[in-house]
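Researcher: We're reviewing a set of sequences before deciding which ones to prioritize for further study. For each one, I'd like a predicted 3D structure that I can look through quickly. This is Purine-cytosine permease fcyB. If possible, include the structure in token form so it fits the rest of the review sheet.
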Amino acid sequence: MKGTRVICILNLLTIIGWGSIGLILSSEILFAITKVIPFRFSTIGLGILAFSIAFCGYDVIHKFQSYAYIPSLISIIIVLVELGKDGSFTVSVPKNLNKAEAILKFAASIMGASIGWTPMAADYNIMRPADTQQAPIFFLTYFSLILSVAASEAVGAACGTVVFKSSHYADSYKLGNIAGLLDDLLQPLGDIGKKVTFVLFLFTAMSSSILSKYSTGFAIQALGNRALLIPRWLWTIVGSAMVTGVALIGANSFNKVLTNLLGIASYWMSIYTCIVLEEHIIFRSRYGYKLDDWNTPSRLPVGIAAGVSSIVGVIGAVLGMQQPWFTGPIAKLIGSPGGDIGFELSAM
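Model: Here's the predicted structure for Purine-cytosine permease fcyB, in token form for your review sheet.
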């Protein structure tokens, strides 16, 4: 049981990190709309708004998310259209570019963005009726993630292309991160059109923060029986405060926070996902689960196999990781500055 606390802590840190990133981006978008609201005020205000929705519980969150994807999708289409009209969208790849490093880094970011739902999905699927078939739950969850991640990553890749090619857009990105770049890209829409698009984008950024604030309560209670003695709504307040606090602290180093979180999250969650899949498919496929034993340690596996597998996975991640602060020996073999294969090796 003690080993599971390590996973719970990593999950909690990842949830807080993703929630703070969504809150930072929301605050930057709000500043791009108004040009007057200070970042700290907007972060606190949007943090309270996200908490208010999360605090209302699953039904309200489900209703919000049922409609929030519409403005998100519209904003993505608008940005892609503007990028397509801009001559900076297509770019020839320089001969001296380490293609393998670039592809692996982008793959790691996609992995970190999508696999992050693995430990959180049950927070929402658990609300389905007990007689719900497994296949619909799996396919609906899987394809929802595929479509949403593909859409957001497509915009990210396109924006990265224009930043790579245009020094003008690169300067906009350096000054204002994603919101600054979008503010420049959407100039052809005029002031009103640009603000409307930013408002639509705000739904995208806020959604991740709302879900993170809701899931922190579950993540904290999973730490042990003592945490279960405190009502989850109190933990939601604590978790929301942590998300907002991290957003206020990490705003000045948004890009570094995002890059580090994506990479590190993909490493540990690759290990976790592989262990869970093996347990479910290989060892539990015939006998299923005794759900009544979930909180009785004497009836649960000791966890030696999972623990050893995790240690081996960590070694693989260290050997293959490529981060600004460390590059593993195997990653160094893939050109300069190295190719990030941390999540592949950790999964193996």
